[in-house]
Amino acid sequence: MISDRLREIQQVQLSPLDLLPQVDVREKIVDLVLRGVPVNAHSIAKNQLLGLRQELLETNVENVKVVVFGGGTGLSNIIGGDSRRETWAQNPFCGLKEIFPQTRSIVCVTDNGGSTGELIKDLPLVAVGDMRHVLLSSIQSCSLQKKYTVDRAEAIAITSVLAEILNWRFVGPLEKGSTQFLAIEKKIRRLPQALEQYLKYLFEYLFADQRLAGTLNRSHCLGNLLLAAAIYRELEDNHSNAELAGNQELLHAAMYKGINTLARVLGAGERAVLPCTSTPAQLRVLYTNGVEIIGEHKLSTSRRGVPVDSVQVDYSDTIRVYEEVLTDIDEADIIILAPGSLYSSIIPVFKVPGLADAVRANQKALKLLISNLWVQAGETDLSIADPERKFHVSDMIRAYEKNIPGGTKGLFNEVICISLNDVPASVLQSYAVEGKVPIYVDREVLLKQQYIPIECGVYSREALVERGVIQHDPHILAIAIKGLYNGRSCFLQTPAEYQAVQRNRPKRFVPGERQIILPCKRYLGIKEKIDNLEIHCIGMSDGVDINLLRANICDILWDHPIIPLSHLEYVQGIECVDRSCWNRDQQWDNVFSFFDPEDKCIKIRGDQVTVRKTLEVALMIAMGESLLGDYAQNKIMKEVVVEQLHLGRVYHLHLTDKKRRTCFLTHDQLQSFLSLARMCATDDENHYTRLVNKGEGFTPPGLLMGLMYAWYIDNRLASHIEYKMSVMKIIQTNLIPEQLKMAGRRSQMIGFFKEIIFKQ
Fold it and tell me: How far apart are CA 380 and CA 401, in angstroms?
């Protein structure tokens, strides 16, 4: 039997690749190009593996066309390193752009925070911050050297200066001759003459074009303004911002020319960076508890405590896509979905009609998804499949499948994931202490979904040593992708296999179209309303800076895109009342604001207006109350006494006759709200009651409207009511019927605010 077993063993044929421990040939290829040949390999096998590795690494890919989708830090990092880091300029020529010179980035444009958020207050543009970030990372060594006749060391020095200029943040206003102005001019003079002249022209254009004047009064990242100047210089100066807002076709053409001109001058190359659409857009996020918020910035700051259900993108005009973008996708040899924020990076890009279908139509390209490394608060810290556990790679793909029109099939085949086996356990432990958790690779689930996980050590050892962080290493990742591309003949699907997958993919769906008001128009509407409000101080000896208060109120309203301008119509003024004059009963709540229907003014206790957070809470609650207007003719609380026993109280609400009523809600909608507030209708349609048992708390309908309004906008603004909504997070059971009723009422209330109050 031993001899029989030996003969069986001798008949087994082993390949040198079998010396590599991975199962899938893709992982073997990546391991070979990144780690090299196993030390203990037999000499014959070693020579064969060395030869294969040399061919994988040295086969020329200069003419290989690469298209990468994404937004912000994740995209810029794999293109050429995170250009916002101070140390980036020490090694700016790395990543995909250096190995694949014909790399083009398609960038998400739904950001509304930071400098970008400030810019779209004044200009009818898409978000440009991520484009500026990726554009800087896309500067190529060979292009810069050839364009300005410099060597590599000089090219690095030039890129360092460009990083200083484009990333430079100033505190507005920016004025000619100021210290900030002179500092910028000094930096620009350090550049080669042709580059200096162009950037100096753009810088001066900021002051010459009156359409850009408003941007100089705010704090900004200078690179965003220079990008805006590059776009506006392509427009005739007789078109005002208002006219441009009404004719987006003009901006469509100017944006393409402006971005490309700036890219060429910087040494990034033709069409190195383009927006996924030239139409201004905003993100709309639905949570599993039914709450819907608006704005990418709100997604990153909200802590709802429940998973994201889905996202949509709303546009301000006809959705426009550059034909050149579709051509680049069609001709691409490699298509990459970059790592980044799950719901505010890849998904908004593929919400743009035509882009996902263009990727699917390209059947020859190597298509890769680069998985995120860590869970992200507000986005991937909870799994919709199982909120009790953390995010897996399959959860990320499930989110893509649900939110991308037509699903994920045909968009990517392989998923490059970080191998946690390569990360020191001490590092993972220290990250866990800080609350940072990796996104785990669930191989078997991915394989069942017909995706191939490629686990490899593509994180930066330098970043780990220098900054104690784990992130993708742009050079290592580019090498891995080069190995996969050059070895693709070993694993790419045949056309027949691809067609079989295509037949089985979900049918394409079209997200609900909703047109939004341009952000700059919305900001102008807010400002006009607040500027016209009567603001008074009562009994405040120290007084209040009214202009500063108006500015803070404008910023608060701007920060919540979900609030329609129509909600401002019910407020005629604001009164700041000194604490000594504040006569509102605070026995049952700590709400220091209310809407007074008699004079249509919001009354805020004076000590609440000096701090942004307390002002925001007070303003949101009172604004919510204002939507009810003068709905109440009178409100009376009567004691219930039976045989000298105090059993409780009855709250009587008599409504203003509907013909004389000023209210955001129709009569039927008001009746629905009062029902949700547990008010009981009587035979008189204008009379409602509510029995309040002895010792029971009670929130009147007006205050409930204000608290729910603030909570819906941001649950952290109404801790008063957050505890009531927590019942929706409890696992429901039929053993507690009252709990089911309560959760049902909360869900209906959320639905009412979503559909009626915010008309989503």
Answer: 15
Q: Are residues 17 and 147 in the same domain?
A: no
Beta-bridged to residue 553, according to DSSP, are: none
Q: How far is CA 401 from the centre of its chain?
A: 18
Instruction: Verify that 563 and 477 share a domain, yes or no.
Output: no
Helix 222-232 vs helix 193-208: crossing angle, to nearest 10: 80
Three-class secondary structure of residue 599 per DSSP = coil
Tokens standing for residue 372: 């995120």
656-698 pLDDT tens trace? 999 999 999 999 999 999 999 999 999 999 999 999 988 777 8
First to last CA, the chain: 76
Q: Which of 274, 232, 281, 282 lies closest to 256, judged by CA?
A: 274
- Could you tell me if 531 and 552 lie in one domain? yes
The answer on 210 and 246 residing in a single domain is yes
Check whether residue 136 and residue 29 sit in a common domain. no
Q: Where are the beta strands (DSSP E) in 237-289?
A: 273-275, 281-287
Tell whether 149 and 16 lie within a shared domain.
Answer: no
User: Side chain identity at 240, as an amino acid letter?
Assistant: S
Asked if residue 483 lies in contact with residue 36, where contact means CB atoms within 8 angstroms, the answer is no
Q: Which two tokens stand for residue 628?
A: 């009810």
In this structure, what are the phi and psi dihedrals at residue 291, rounded to the nearest 5 degrees?
-75, 140
> Which tens digits make up the pLDDT trace of 549-603?
999 999 999 999 999 999 999 999 999 999 889 988 766 678 999 999 999 999 9
Q: Which domain holds residue 567?
A: 519-626+699-757
In which element (H, E) is residue 367 found? strand 366-370
501-311-565 Cα angle (round to 5): 150
State which amino acid sits at residue 389: R
Among the three residues 31, 58, 85, which one is the final residue of a domain in this structure?
A: 58
Ranges assigned E (strand) in 438-577 = 452-456, 534-538, 573-577
- Preceding peptide of 173 cis, ω within 30°: yes
Q: What is the Cα–Cα distance from 288 to 375, expressed in whole angstroms?
A: 18
**Residue 519 φ then ψ, to 5°:** -50, -40
Looking at the structure of the chain, the number of domains it has is 3
Q: Which of 13, 33, 58 finishes a domain?
A: 58
pLDDT for 506 equals 38
Place of tokens 């033709």: 270
CA dist 755 and 760 (Å) reads 5
DSSP code per residue over 630-694 = T-EEEEEEEEEEETTEEEEEEEEEEEPPTTT---SS-HHHHHHHHHHTTPEE-SSTTEEEEEEET
469 and 589 share a domain?
A: no
Rg (CA), the chain: 30
What is the spatial distance between Cα 756 and Cα 292, in angstroms, rounded to a whole number? 12
Report the predicted TM-score, pTM, of the whole model to 2 decimal places. Answer: 0.88
Q: Are residues 284 and 153 in the same domain?
A: yes
| Segment 219-244, tens digit of pLDDT | 999 999 999 999 999 999 999 999 99
**Does the residue 650 lie in any domain?**
no
